[in-house]
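Input (structure):
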């Protein structure tokens, strides 16, 4: 199917999958699945991830195979909201907002499923794609975050493309430098007595 698509749609579809990798959606899905077990709904998580990624690509003037799920459509159908943008939602927050609650009033899970079906949604993120099957460790996540920050900064300075719209995305992981650990280690090294050869003996 990919071969018969127009070139601009092929580029958009490739960018869609690259963004899933760059935003670590497989690893994040694996972490949520490990935390919530059988209660976790991978298809709903994937729907939320696709809506965010597709909205970024459309904001960057990329083409996608139509129909495609978007954040606006998912908010309208799933939450009954007419507004809300990329800066307001990350994939976990959107997943939990869409998650059906038993006995809750205004449960719109049927509308979400109908919207996904109308948009011909097919899951394309798998938790098994994450390294080690259980998500990457903190060091790997920090490395990905650094790469992504540099890419976003380069795109922002270019003024067009994915980078120009990606900086508005709340799904970008925030750097969490453990300054208390780093400073404690530096202070310990500074005040610990050090053995040095002495000629005074």
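Output (sequence):
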């Amino acid at each position: 199917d990919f071969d018969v698509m127009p070139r601009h749609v092929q580029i958009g579809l490739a960018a869609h999958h690259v963004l899933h990798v760059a935003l670590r959606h497989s690893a994040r899905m694996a972490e949520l699945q490990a935390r919530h077990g059988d209660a976790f709904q991978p298809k709903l998580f994937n729907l939320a991830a696709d809506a965010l990624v597709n909205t970024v690509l459309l904001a960057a003037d990329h083409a996608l195979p139509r129909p495609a799920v978007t954040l606006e459509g998912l908010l309208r159908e799933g939450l009954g909201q007419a507004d809300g943008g990329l800066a307001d939602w990350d994939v976990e927050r959107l997943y939990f907002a869409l998650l059906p609650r038993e006995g809750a009033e205004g449960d719109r899970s049927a509308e979400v499923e109908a919207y996904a079906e109308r948009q011909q949604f097919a899951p394309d993120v798998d938790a098994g794609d994450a390294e080690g099957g259980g998500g990457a460790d903190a060091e790997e996540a920090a490395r990905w975050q650094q790469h992504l920050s540099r890419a976003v900064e380069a795109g922002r300075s270019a003024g067009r493309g994915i980078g120009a719209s990606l900086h508005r995305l709340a799904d970008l992981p925030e750097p969490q430098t453990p300054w208390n650990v780093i400073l404690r280690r530096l202070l310990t090294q500074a005040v610990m007595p050090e053995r040095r050869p002495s000629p005074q003996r």
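Notes: The two ends are 82 Å apart (CA to CA). Confidence is low (pLDDT under 50) at residues 132-136.
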